[in-house]
Design goal:
This protein has about 325 residues and is of the alpha/beta class. It has ten helices and 13 strands. The longest helix has 20 residues.
């Protein structure tokens, strides 16, 4: 039974994960660990963060018996693995820097970072200290999406030749542009398409967002977001044989349970299910979309990070 530490009690994800781990009677209980120690955190300039710290901290301590400590380092010292749950993507690099030397496996909740430079520095920390590192939106593991993708290939819908993903796209001033909610649709897109985007073009209006990514093999994928009308996520996965609609609400299993199962596999010694290079690329994808939203022009994914040009998943060489 792993002792799991939690950093950041300013999001409902903290209590959702604790419930799935602690409640043996939950229909989607995820076995193998308990949250035993936590650092509340919270960002004073981020109302959706700081206003929720007290309530979630009380729930973790009172309902689940979690010991509350005063620093991320104290969490890392007392646990086997870490859920870095802070809602504010701006603080993730600083928090990861403070715990990297403990070499514990870490899951960083979305958004991994809000700049490609921060994301690449986080990748480098995991390589330097040799600890497993994973991050994604739970929507990547929505049952409707994973089942549709499992049917891709010659015996199903054919190879994926494109994808159109959609969902709500609320904006949050402290999380630049599309990072706050765009991460969900972007994760779904990358789950379908894989890494390798080379160019991004975005269009924005007061109520809508549309982002087109061009992959190096010629495929095109899109994300669409809205701030009016419905708030539902979904996707169209285009295969060589047919197009499959993804209804992420068609199954009872919560996204968080499917995600937590993958995280726990990593915590128990497995490899991260998502290459960290792909996660860095997703951050760059959203960053490039933000740049295109401002200029109205296509933006190349290449950037001035480690190595010359973009470091894309599957191309991570040793520094």
């Amino acid at each position: 039974m792993l002792n799991i530490g939690m950093i950041g009690l300013d999001t409902s994800h903290a209590t959702a994960f604790a419930e799935l781990l602690h409640d043996d009677a939950h229909p989607y209980h995820v076995p193998g660990g308990r949250v035993t120690v936590a650092y509340p955190g919270g960002s004073p300039d981020f109302e959706l963060s700081i206003s929720r710290v007290a309530g979630f901290t009380e729930t973790l301590a009172g309902r689940y018996g979690v010991r509350i400590v005063d620093s991320p380092e104290a969490v890392a010292e007392a646990c086997d693995a870490i859920l870095l749950e802070s809602a504010d993507g701006r603080v993730h690099l600083r928090q990861l820097e403070s715990i990297a030397r403990y070499r514990k496996p870490v899951f960083v909740d979305k958004p991994f970072a809000v700049s490609s430079s921060d994301a690449d520095r986080m990748r480098r920390l995991s390589e330097r200290y040799g600890f497993p590192l994973m991050s994604c939106s739970a929507l990547r593991y929505a049952e409707g999406l994973t089942r549709a993708l499992a049917e891709s290939g010659p015996d199903g819908i054919g190879d994926v030749i494109g994808a159109d993903c959609f969902g709500p796209m609320a904006l949050q001033p402290t999380q630049p542009g599309l990072f706050w909610y765009g991460i969900h649709a972007a994760e779904m897109l990358y789950a379908a398409m894989g890494p390798g985007c080379v160019r991004v073009t975005a269009h924005t209006s007061p109520e809508h967002e549309a982002v087109t990514g061009e992959w190096r093999d010629g495929r095109i994928g899109t994300i669409r977001g809205n701030r009016s009308g419905n708030n539902r996520f979904g996707a169209l996965i285009h295969g060589a044989k047919e197009t499959r609609y993804v209804d992420v609400y068609a199954f009872d299993k919560p996204y968080y349970a499917s995600l937590l199962e993958r995280v726990m596999d990593m915590f128990r010694g497995g490899s991260p299910p998502i290459a960290i290079g792909e996660t860095v690329e997703i951050v760059r994808f959203l960053e490039a979309a933000n740049e295109s939203r401002e200029t109205g022009k296509p933006v190349e994914m290449a950037w001035g990070g480690s190595a010359s040009g973009a470091r894309l998943a599957g191309q991570d060489n040793e520094d």
